[in-house]
Amino acid sequence: MKTNVLKNEGKELILEFEGTDSTIAEMLASQLLTESDVSFAGVSRDHPQTGKPTLVIKTSKKKPADALQSAIETLEESFTEMMKGIPKK
Length: 89
Fold this sequence. Notes:
By secondary structure, the chain is an alpha+beta fold. The protein has two helices and four strands. The chain has one domain: Gyrase A, domain 2.
């Protein structure tokens, strides 16, 4: 999966995801919305079948890239914890 930065100015970051559906972008947006400094996080797509998912992040104080990093780390911790409960063969 490739990620293209469409905009990274001030308190706004817009990322475009290639080679994937909107699942990852939606998970990130959902996690970002739990952070107090994130004023907006959402996913758009020009067309459901052909468009590339775009994640928009807007923050009030910290850099949006820092908020994104925090969201990724939180999701990673959640998945690691979830995997502990799955029996291995």
